[in-house]
Amino acid sequence: MASQRDVRTRIASIRNIQKITRAMEMVAAARLRRAEQRIEALRPYADALRRMTREAADRAGALPQLPVLAEHEQVSNVGLLLIAGDRGLAGAFNSQIVRAGVAASREYVGAGLSAVFYASGRRPASSLTFRGLEPRRSFMGYTDRPSYADARRIAEVLMAAYVDDEIDRVEVFYNGYISPISQVVRRETLLPLQQATVLGDDQPPEDERGDRAQTDTPRALVEYEPDPQGILRRLIPDYVEVSIYRALLESTASELGARMTAMRNASENAGELIEDLTLQMNRARQAEITQEIMEVVAGAEGLR
């Protein structure tokens, strides 16, 4: 059995760790609210960009002959973008993205295709390298507060690889933010755009649908300058960048929520361990006191 000094040392160490985990929980909680606000601020812009792209595509009729809009006749190389964090101590936040990406690559390899990895974050990059799946490009150092420039840099690399026929399809894996205690792994197709949500059927907001139902006034015609094809050429790269930027923001909020939950659980576990060690120390002290009393009584009996 450990001595009282050893138990006291363990209790002091655990209390110090508990202070750190509580501080990390408070920091994550404070930063999480700002991350939520960034997501809420981006949604109106992303929705408006999606509607503009959809309307421009409808007016353009046949899609412009843009390399980024051209579907490859044969899909042989699939690019997998894994978006996670630069740091750990966030539960299964990073590992579940890596597992999802590796599982998808095995599916494609089993179907006779090849998978090319792109990593956003130090953790997925190091995990892929450890597994022998070296990512073609890694992007690090911004996951705590991603900027639009970071999303643009990733989008340029992916679109260039798609245009140069290095990859025939791009999928994105990231943690979608639902609440501080709930994150879900999302798998979305980014390229080709014909298979992404940019050209899919999207419904207008509820207020617009209600206004259209209550009035018979025709909608105003939108005039494009120079033309719908030119506008679409400008909107397509923006849509890809915004899609990646949204994934980065959701991943950041998910990481902060996961870290806050993990640190709270760690603090609670530390408290339970301190209680168990305190009980163990008290029992050891009582055993020593009992032993000393028995020795005193035995000595007194021997003097009679």
What does this entry look like structurally?
With 304 residues, this protein is of the alpha/beta class. The chain has a domain at 26-199 and 224-260: 3-Layer(aba) Sandwich (Pyruvate Kinase, Chain: A, domain 1). It has six helices and five strands. It has helices at residues 4-60, 93-110, 122-130, 148-163, 206-214, 228-303; strands at 77-83, 114-120, 137-139, 169-179, 182-191. The chain has a five-stranded mixed sheet, with helices on both faces. A hairpin with a 2-residue loop joins strand 4 (169-179) and strand 5 (182-191). The two termini are 35 Å apart.
The secondary-structure element order is HEHEHEHEEHH
Q: Roughly what is the average pLDDT, rounded to an integer?
A: 84
CATH class value of the domain at 26-199 and 224-260: Alpha Beta
* Largest sheet composition: 5 strands, mixed
Major sheet strand order: 3-2-1-4-5
Question: What's the count of strands?
Answer: 5
CATH homologous group name of the domain at 26-199 and 224-260: ATP synthase, F1 complex, gamma subunit
CATH topology of the domain at 26-199 and 224-260: Pyruvate Kinase, Chain: A, domain 1
Strand content: 5-15%
Task: Output the number of helix runs.
Answer: 6
Radius of gyration: 29 Å
- The CATH architecture assignment of the domain at 26-199 and 224-260 turns out to be 3-Layer(aba) Sandwich
Overall helicity: 55-70%
Distance from first to last alpha carbon:
35 Å
